[in-house]
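Kindly inspect both lines:
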Amino acid sequence: MLTLRLGERWRTKGAGPRDSVSLEIEGVSLLPAVDEVDLGQWLGGWLEALKAMLIDRAATAQVSLEAPALELCLLRRPGLGLELSVVSLEPEPRRISSPVTIDLVELRRALETATRAFLRGAAESGLEAGQIVALERALREATGRAISPFPATAQAPWAFSRSLEGLRLELDDRDGRTTLVSRGSANLAALLTGGGLWIDGATSGQPPFLAMMGLVRRRPSAEAFELGLALCAALHERHAGWATNPWVDALFVRCTEGLAALRPPTPALSDAPPPRPPGPRGEAPLAPVGQARRVTLSPKWSRPVALGEPRGRIALSKRAVVVHAPHAAHVFSAAGKEWRRVHATRGVAATGDGDLLVAHEAKLACFSGAETSARWLRDGSGLRVGPSLESLDGRWLTRLGGRGALALETFTGREAWRFDPPRTQRAVLSRIGGRLIIGTDSGDLYGLDASDGQVRFRIRGPVASPWPIAPLQRDGVAVLTSSSQTVVLRFAALAGGVAGQAGAVAWTRPLPLENASAPLVVRGKIFVAGRSDNRGAVACLSARGEVLWLRGVPLDGASTSLLGFERGVLAVDGRGGAVRLLPDGDVSWVLGGLEDALTQRIEPSLAKHVLVVPGTSVRLVEPTSGRLLAATPREPELTDCAVGRGLTLFTYAEAGALTCYEPRAVLSVV
């Protein structure tokens, strides 16, 4: 028999009666001695957990005891079984005993008995009437519905292992519990998998996630922090819901800040400019005019970044630098001063100025730059936003859950319009004049009026449209591509285009490319890169859709990006290789790629007549000759880079470091 036992000598302190509590099975307590617990909060926590499992159909739930730092972790099993694990967080995370399986029907009966007994004496013990009513309501909700068996889920077993200099971590998830998580879930039960952590050959005997939390607290070292980050990355790849789990986020932040503290210190900026080296041979700052002949990069400042999820992006402006992901953002000033860090279960949308839309379960807030308070706050209504945010005619325009578009009034947050396309999981938003073009993974192209969100036309394509639309006068050029085929089409985005009526297709042209890049329009010519005959290739089309030439290039065609340069193009791939193609398709120069490829595509850029080539080492290249000017240190975990004013370079590594490099150069002034 399961019993929730409350003490009999209630002491009133603060909000309500306090006494000892215990959880017993057949008279054996599953908890250590627990005294001075707020009985109303204790029972309320159990009722909330029971309601989540019975009404919300949650697979996990949790009851917390703050004073002894205990977490009671509940995990639904197929049928009516419930796995209970008691975790102590002090002095370091550990599971007190082996998991116990209890019956959900017995738990509800025991909880109902304990709550009714508490309510009978609550009024005489100083409990406020509002708390009594809240407990009675929670009891009715938790016990007023029939218990249905939990369905069995067929999940493939999952394992993860990693070794680093005397440390070895293994996760063995045989029953698929690491998939029983939802966005916003704060529960620890799904992290208590099999496996272990071995330190110099000796095992900890605890679940690997708890052992990892204890290791980074007890023995902080670079190896321990890197192992913790590898564990967080593996969980993110396993299920997207771990991106907003506070336990995984806490481990990620701990490891990120630990690695940053172990790095050699980089002096921060001061208000006074740095002193110039003495003598005439000292390097001069980058001049506003001229062509670079030599560039050196020196670290200006470095800051730890804690997003809690992988593959963050950089957005920057003259006054701010923002590192953001779908559910988090970290905002810094251009001088490296931290302004804000936000984390939201339903998404975060960010601009380079530091303006943020933060969507929680019940509210949507807007923050601006370094302001300490929200600009406005409104009912969230279950909206999912992000990750990009832009200003459009006095409104904020963002993505609606990564698949549609949402327009909000900038100063009030009032919703102007929304568009949520059917049969869509991922969409890309582009703008041509007053027309918004949304390309979907189902191959549809929607043309929306930016003022009211009304759909003006729809074009159906054979495969997905994964890239933004390239403008060509009043028309748009789209690339529809997959691993098997590529189609380029030109259509009238605005009335009066080549095809006349908005939405009319002027021409379509299939290309022998796989995984093609975004289209690039340079002086009326259209360039597309991709993979052809198992090698990289670049195609050039005329404005009428005629294929002018198709050239093979020594690049990885599946990750190639294009930049326009002097009527030709610069092609860059994910390994940091680059090729310059002249207008007739001839190769001018080739820059070899690096050994390791980037984990995600980073677009190259041109600044101050310098080509910035992303890779595990970001390289600066003179675009006319292909001469290497400078390079950053190797960073295998590089996630994004961006170029600011005067060729200032910002890099973000997956380990959580945002670094600012200041260029110093000798110029040939023209």
About this structure: The first helix runs from residue 39 to 54. Residues 421-505 form a domain with the Lipocalin fold (CATH 2.40.128.630). The two ends are 88 Å apart (CA to CA). Helices lie at 39-54, 104-122, 129-143, 208-218, 222-238, 246-262.
